[in-house]
Amino acid sequence: MTTGRKNIILVDDHQIIIDGLKSLLGQMKGVRVVETFTDPRDALFYIEKRKVDLILTDLSMPIMSGAKFVELVKERDKNIKVIALTMHDDVKSIKSMITLGADGYLIKNTDYKILQNAVEKVLNNEQYYEAKVVDAIINKFKPSVEINGKRIALSKREIDILERVGDGMTTTDIAKALFISKHTVNSHRRNLNVKLGVNRPAELISRAKELGLL
Fold first, then answer.
1. Which of 89, 126, 161, 167 is most buried, judging by how many CB atoms fall within 10 Å of its CB?
2. Containing H/E element for 137?
3. 62 in the same domain as 108
4. Total structural domains in the chain?
């Protein structure tokens, strides 16, 4: 841990989560929870007036999404560290937080030692992503999804094509972009339809969004 006491604020729309986190972090040396917020807008106002070293924030909040909150925090002061603490372990959420510059990503059912380790590493200018998140990063966001109680794995190529379908690209455009034949693209699209249980392109995109793949 770096020297000096570090200021932490907590942002979550559930007070019971805030109370639990505050209690746990209160057991750590070298840090202090200086303020808590259920409204991220109040947290943004706070960091403009006072020094904050680290923010732990939820992603699903009714007033402002965690993604938007992290984006605004980094715009105001890129030196403020941010750890996302959420129930979301889907690809879309992970990719969004990494892109926005979050310094850590934890799942809410994590234990205290992992939380403590994440806080210490992030305050030492390191990044910390929980094991489940690391697996997604290593596999280049190749997720598996659960459909009707069955776990379905998608290949990297299927993900590549799915993302391009979501961007509105045609089979011809996708084939050119990936340097593969139109036949191969169509084959992957058929496999995606089967795996996700759909028949038409619009259904594929809608289902992929529901599952957090787009």
1. 161
2. helix 131-138
3. yes
4. 2
119 plus 155 within the same structural domain: no
> CA triplet 132, 135, 140: central angle to 5 degrees?
135
pLDDT tens, the chain, 214 aa long: 445 789 999 999 999 999 999 999 999 999 999 999 999 999 999 999 999 999 999 999 998 999 999 999 999 999 999 999 998 877 778 888 888 999 999 998 888 999 999 999 999 999 998 877 766 655 555 556 777 777 788 888 888 899 899 999 999 999 999 999 999 999 999 999 999 989 888 899 998 888 878 7
Residue 107 is part of which domain span? Answer: 6-138
Sequence-distant (≥ 6) Cβ neighbours of residue 75 within 8 angstroms: none
Phi and psi at residue 203, in whole multiples of 5°? -70, -35
C-alpha to C-alpha distance for 12 and 43, rounded to whole angstroms: 10
What are the tokens at 10?
A: 């907590």
